[in-house]
Amino acid sequence: MENNFSSERNLTVPYIRIAQSVNVMILRLVILAFVVLIALALLGFFYDLFLTLIRQEVADVASTEYFKLLFGFGSYAIIALWVIHRWRSTFYEIYHDRIVLYGSYGRRHSDTIFANDIAGVDYFQGMAGGVLNYGFIKIKLKTDLRGEVVLNNVPDPEYNKRNIQNIIVRQKEAI
Questions:
Q1: What is 49-65 written as a DSSP string?
Q2: Domains in the chain, ordered, with CATH?
């Protein structure tokens, strides 16, 4: 998190930039490894079951094992690259008068929430979030049809909730 707060209000430079938590990305990759291992075990079981059902002997056991390994590592690599891409390309910037959300699902997009449109801010940390110090910030909106916006996997959500509340207070004082 970068903090560029100064006495002069430079509205083009964010005073806080929030990137998604590294701990969350590592946790997702570890869970993904376990899921791929279970999938490999199931793939091997069903492949062997298929061979016994059609009453064929396994001609080359080594080639089927290599296939399972390549399938497992390939699928893990593809999904891991997607997780890392999402982690690297999703971040939030808090300005003095607005919050800008940047995200990417194959293409880059951004969404802006002005401080005047925010009705309230709340945060949530689960058990893993408490240990790894990340959570979710829920921003309740006054005018938008969405009703609320959720900032996912925010490091130190209580600190960042206070920062968002501070821009709301500063914006009300400026009016």
A1: HHHHHTT---S-HHHHH
A2: 25-86 (no CATH), 94-174 (2.30.29)
